[in-house]
């Protein structure tokens, strides 16, 4: 068979059912082999969109999402999305074509060293040199992409190699068995936690990836310890649970940080420093930290670990819970300050629920109505911008992977293509992408992809006609900002041009009804919401003058 045919057989053996991308001359054999296989090829309008789709597919399924491009400019267009997946720990396999080997050694049309380009932003990158090595190369890429910490891997297949005769067959997949945590380390962790008066738990996305959510919930319930999540760990503990202390991650000190300040032991579980650096929650470097993860702790001046439990997270949490149960009945600790933090946060969330304003809508009101419109398992996907900060603070979840926020690489343009992939994975759920007007137009071309796929998604654009997050940060630091204004299209006409339903919210009291119309529509809908970002500085001032409950 052709090498391209063997390559596709190997993809099928990995369980691949969909590949996102844009083909080229150099991938012609591979695309034709895919055309005659069980794999669906989703044609996108930009390679960056394909990479973001593969990213979200990987986040939601736990299996590697796959994206494809041709050589040169096609491959460079993938870079931002691939880097986003890698730093957000999403399993992704990237496939690129390449010029034939007879011209790779010299200056040649569209040819650059793509493997070298991808190495700094992937876990592993390699070119197929010998067609008979394809089973090993593909198996290795998928294995590494899924191993902790998950990320992106890259395979290059030159056009002449793809046409060569190949021998062999796919290498069977083998499940990775996580090592069991050391019993002595778990006992030491339990002893340290039990010596504390006000311990607190800080969870990261590693809890979601490892399937440790049930074990975490039992630990929180049995011990009574409050749980704070990073942006990417929302939903690990249900928002209505008394142990849920919501989310940390804003640059300014928030009420949630007060629970860490008051804690005498901080238990980090599946926590990734790339999301929220320890210097922002352990600035005095005086926290006693218990680190529980599949990976050893990263070296950081503000992350000095007292006890380190490395191994399968669900196993470690189950062992830890048994140890704590032996110490007595919940609550084992003084959680009064944590409960006061929770009470004040809940009051804050509801403050503007009944707003009735004309024109600009407060972010708090928007997110209250959005939360009311979304079911427990529906999926909100945030883009990057000022709206992301509001979503992080005000939108909370009952289940993991129901609020996807890129918070490692933080690439703008993520939400629209991500929503398309989310709807493919979970067609039975409502999917809402929330974008700023800056990030939305970075991948606006994927509106055509959504229409072609008849994806029943809703995209909400927060309109302020500028790069609002940059302005927010400049005003916080310098008291003024540079010119960040830009123009925008007529949102209803833009939607109509792509075959979408277009809606504009003019009064805050109309938002709930507009969302109902959008979700009831057969096909994609665009909802433009003029947002009152005067609230940005008001929030900064409020957090800056905040007094922690005691």
Describe this structure in words.
The strands form three sheets. The chain has a six-stranded parallel sheet, sandwiched between helices. A six-stranded parallel sheet has the order 9-8-7-10-11-12, with helices on both faces. It has helices spanning 3-13, 28-35, 47-61, 73-87, 114-118, 134-146, 159-163, 183-194, 206-209, 213-223, 255-262, 313-325, 336-350, 363-373, 386-394, 415-425, 437-440, 446-452, 468-478, 491-497, 511-520, 534-544, and strands at residues 18-21, 40-43, 65-69, 92-98, 124-127, 152-158, 199-203, 227-229, 244-247, 265-269, 289-293, 305-310, 379-382, 403-404, 431-436, 458-463, 501-504, 525-530. Helix 1 (3-13) packs parallel to helix 6 (134-146). The protein has three domains: 3-163, Thiamin diphosphate (ThDP)-binding fold, Pyr/PP domains (Rossmann fold, 3-Layer(aba) Sandwich), CATH 3.40.50.970; 183-343, Rossmann fold; 352-543, Thiamin diphosphate (ThDP)-binding fold, Pyr/PP domains (Rossmann fold, 3-Layer(aba) Sandwich). With 550 residues, it is α/β, with parallel strands linked by helices. The chain is globular, with a radius of gyration of 24 Å. The mean pLDDT is 94. 39% of the residues lie in helices and 16% in strands.
